[in-house]
Amino acid sequence: MRIALAGMIGLGAAWGQPLTLPEAVRRAWETYPAIRVAAEQGRAAAAGIEAARAAYLPRADLIGQVNRATRNSVFGLLLPQPVISPITGPVLGQTSPTNVWGTAVGALVAWEPFDFGARRAQVETAQRSRDRAEAEAAVRRLEVGTAAADAFLTVLAAEQVVKAAEASVERARVLEESVRALVAAELRPGADASRAAAERVQARTQLIQAEQAREVSRAGLGQWIGGAAGALVRPASPAQVRHGDPAATAPSGRGSVTAFVSTSARDRAATGGSGRAPRDELGPGTEGGAAGKHPRVAVQEASVEVSRARERAIERSYFPKFQLGATTFSRGSGARADGTTGGAASGLGPNFYNWALGMTVTFPLLDLAGLRARRQVEAHTGRAEAARGEQVGVELKAEVEKARAALAGARRLAENTPAGVAASRVLVEQAGARYRAGLGTIVEVAEAQRLLAQAEIDDALAGLAVWRALVMLGAAEGDLGPVLAAAK
Fold first, then answer.
1. Secondary element (H or E) of residue 63
2. pTM (2 decimals)?
């Protein structure tokens, strides 16, 4: 069933084709900024892996310098600092303002041949961060898709209410004309005409309110799909929803909701309550995504893995660092050891050359206390994320149960509303016949028409309520795919 949404401009005119529920969700995924934000964050995290792997490569530094300075040197030690420039050469015993040229060029190549797993731990940390960013992107995608589907169904529901309100206004108009004719023939009192006019005004007021709600819902849909839509295609009639039963294709408990809860319990049992467990205990790995899991569960599992990877990186920090170094450099100076200087251009080019090859070993002797504290921070952070994941599992399980209950109720309601419409129509006919025969009052006719209007609204919304419950169930299960496939 196609419902024309008149008066909408912008992208809807460019798209041309009627908008279906799957198409609305797809456009939301393509155009909504939050999706692009999450995608770029995922790419940034992936680039962080390459940055961490770059630590395996040797480091090469080049330097070149030209200066004009005095040549006075002094014996003594100077602690490392960034202000006073170092100077080399013999102490001349006197200070002179004479200045000379000085030059220097050099290259230093350094490489860490082994690091006791420190660089591997940093790469693993970056990988786990990438996995978490991908899981967070999946959460944003699910949230945006759910919101777009809900906005789509809201517009359809608002349009159905408008149609029912228009029908109510038309019935009120016909009733008013009939009553005025009877009043003019002095077959009914004038109060009946006033009552019929009041009913028409009330019906018109309800129509205006319904049209207002429809325009607001259109704007809400435009927010998600990147602009206005032309015409919306209703996914299925209430009868199709009842008998076709698309709920049979909806997500049906893949175990993703309870996976984190049971995992957290196994972690505590395996570690004596420490919250740390082998990575395999978390079930399917998060490398390359967490297929089969609810995205929110995958985010928490990835957060736990990030904390564990950081903890392992800290553990690998308290080891000696071995660094191979190779350097070559040249220096030139216009100053001589006997205190004299060369010509005006002396020192502008390097005239002394050196090279060196060796290994440097450093050990953070006094960093142990700080590293232990940082390790404790990451351990507690990991336990907090595991507990938060357990909470997410409990919440998702409750959301699934609520969505299933809502779906069952919506389907029962959709089965019941047609009977209400049929009975209300009969009631309107009977009340009208009784009124024309002088056996009923205008109040009975007005009440019957209001009951029919409400029954028509309830019946129109019942089928959409089933689809809304299906969308909520898909969101709770973490996969809108089956619902969107059923809506095509």
1. strand 59-70
2. 0.72
Place of tokens 């938060």: 388
Task: Domain ranges for the chain, please list them.
Answer: 2-51+122-256+400-486
Q: In CATH terms, is domain 2-51+122-256+400-486 a member of 3.40.50.1000? A: no
Alpha helices for 1-95 (secondary structure H): 11-15, 21-31, 33-53
pLDDT tens-digit profile, the chain (488 residues): 333 333 333 333 344 468 888 888 989 998 889 888 888 888 888 888 888 888 888 889 899 999 888 888 888 888 888 888 888 888 777 788 888 888 999 999 998 888 888 888 889 889 999 999 999 999 999 999 999 999 999 998 888 889 888 888 888 888 888 888 887 877 778 888 888 888 888 888 988 988 898 888 888 888 888 877 667 777 755 444 433 344 444 444 444 443 443 444 344 334 433 333 333 333 333 333 344 689 999 999 999 999 999 889 888 888 888 889 999 989 888 887 777 787 878 888 888 888 899 988 888 888 888 888 888 898 998 899 899 889 999 999 999 999 999 998 988 888 888 898 899 888 888 888 887 877 878 888 888 888 888 888 888 888 888 888 999 999 999 888 888 888 77
Q: Say which DSSP state 335 is in.
A: B
- Dihedral angle sign, alpha carbons of residues 404, 406, 412, 414: negative
Torsion sign, CA atoms 466, 468, 469, 470: positive
**Structure tokens belonging to residue 373:** 């504290």
